[in-house]
Amino acid sequence: MKNRDFDSLTEAINLLVKEGFTEDFQTNDDYIEGIKSDHKYKPEDLKITEQYRFEGMTDPDDSSELLAIEANDGIKGTMVMAYGAKHSQNTDLIKQIKFEN
C-alpha cells in the first residue's frame, strides 16, 4: 500500500483517476456495483489497495474516507464514504473486502 499525504479528498481522487482508478463503486444490499461499468461484485471479488481519511474543515466529526479498490477483472476505482452525516454505503459489506497491505 502506498503512503501518501493529500490536502483534500478532491486531490486524492484526481490523482487516483490519473493512475487508472476510474470506476465509481457503491454498495447495495447484497453487492458492490461499478456505476460506470454496471458490473456487480461480491466483496471477495475486490481488494482495497489504498485508504485515506479526511476530516471536515469546520467539524472534525464531518469526515470522509476514500478507498482505492481493484476488482479481480482488472477494473480499478474509488469509493467515498461520508461520516458524521448519514451515508448510504453498506459498511458491513465493505468490511468484507480484503485489505491488501
Give a written overview of the molecule.
Strands 3-2-1-6-5-4-7 form a 7-stranded mixed sheet. A hairpin with a 4-residue loop joins strand 1 (23-27) and strand 2 (32-34). It contains 2 helices and 7 strands, in the order H-E-E-E-E-E-E-H-E. By secondary structure, the protein is mainly beta. The chain has one domain (9-99). The longest helix is centred in the first third of the chain and has 10 residues, at 9-18. The protein is 14% helix and 36% strand.
Which key features would you list for this structure?
single chain, 101 residues, 7-stranded mixed sheet, 7 strands, 14% helix
- Helix-strand makeup class: mainly beta
Oligomer: single chain
Determine the number of helices (DSSP H or I, runs of at least 4 residues).
Answer: 2
Tell me the major beta sheet. 7 strands, mixed
Going across the biggest sheet, name each strand in turn.
3-2-1-6-5-4-7
Q: Low-confidence stretches at least 5 residues in length (pLDDT < 50)?
A: none
Global morphology: globular
The number of domains: 1
Q: Any idea what the radius of gyration is?
A: 13 Å
Helical content band: 10-25%
Approximate strand percentage = 35-45%
- Order of helical and strand elements: HEEEEEEHE
Write down the overall mean pLDDT: 88
Distance between the termini: 5 Å
Q: Please tally the β strands and state the result.
A: 7
